[in-house]
Amino acid sequence: MTVPVLAAAAVHKSYWLGRREIPVLRGVDLQVLPGEMVALLGASGAGKSTLLHVLGLLDQPSAGAILYDGQPVHALPVVQRARLRHQHVGFVFQFYHLIPELTALQNVELARMMQCSLFGYLRQRRAVRTAATGLLVQVGLGERLGHRPSELSGGERQRVAIARALLARPRVILADEPTGNLDSATAADVMELMFAINRQHGLAFVLVTHNEAIAQRCHRTIRLRDGAVVS
Questions:
Q1: What would the pLDDT profile of 144-161 be if each residue is shown by its tens digit?
Q2: Which helix (H) or strand (E) holds 169?
Q3: Containing H/E element for 218?
Q4: pLDDT at position 224
Q5: Measured at the alpha carbon of residue 229, what is the angle toward residues 224 and 231, in degrees to the nearest 5?
Q6: CA angle, 56 as apex, 51 and 59 as ends, to 5°?
């Protein structure tokens, strides 16, 4: 039996507003197999982004378990969770989260800097630069290596973010409305790129989207309503 690259088991997540508990996730079960592209659908407030943050170890569940390759990881110490997150998960966000002062190439290289010590990075910086350059070429930005985010279009910024996620060589990419800030033509181009990466690299994706057409192209769709999986 294939072990899921990522799984959630009976995951609950609540926030507190004073003494009032606000439940966001209510017993979510989810499995993502290697190379699988999973669409996560639901109305605003359904808990999609919260679930992505918990899956990516950016936040801890209030109850339940998060498993990477079959091993529970949600209760690891903070430093170990951060290290595992950098090694296992790539993130692509709606608003890119690029560093404005850095070039496209430097923003991609940042993914490897986060994985090792300063001296460790300095020892491999030439190899990192070669790999980052190759990824930017792969996503169609070979001529834009030295451009800063303010000099790039929205679609180009998202391609930089995708290249940055790939440089870490993750097992799964979590994408939160990656085309939500783009016009329809640019969004279609970015989605084609992500589907191509899924096919070529066998990389698993969890894709938050409101777009039913995009969801239908994924291997599987999971629907959330009021913090629970309904289909």
A1: 999 999 999 998 998 999
A2: none
A3: none
A4: 93
A5: 95
A6: 70
Q: How many CB atoms lie within 10 A of CB 85?
A: 20
Please report where in the chains the tokens 């507003």 appear, as a residue: 17
Q: Which pLDDT score is estimated for 209?
A: 87
Q: In this structure, which amino acid lies at residue 79?
A: V
CATH topology (fold) of 6-99+154-229: Rossmann fold (3.40.50)
- pLDDT of 113: 72
What contacts 115, CB < 8 A, 6 or more positions away?
83, 86, 87, 168
Give the start-to-end residue ranges of the domains of the chain: 6-99+154-229
Alpha-carbon Rg for the chain, nearest whole angstrom, is 18
Q: Which two tokens stand for residue 16?
A: 């507190």
Residues in the chain, pLDDT under 70:
114-121
**CA triple 82-165-206, angle to 5 deg:** 85
Q: What is the pLDDT of residue 183?
A: 84
Contact by Cβ (8 Å): 223, 231: yes
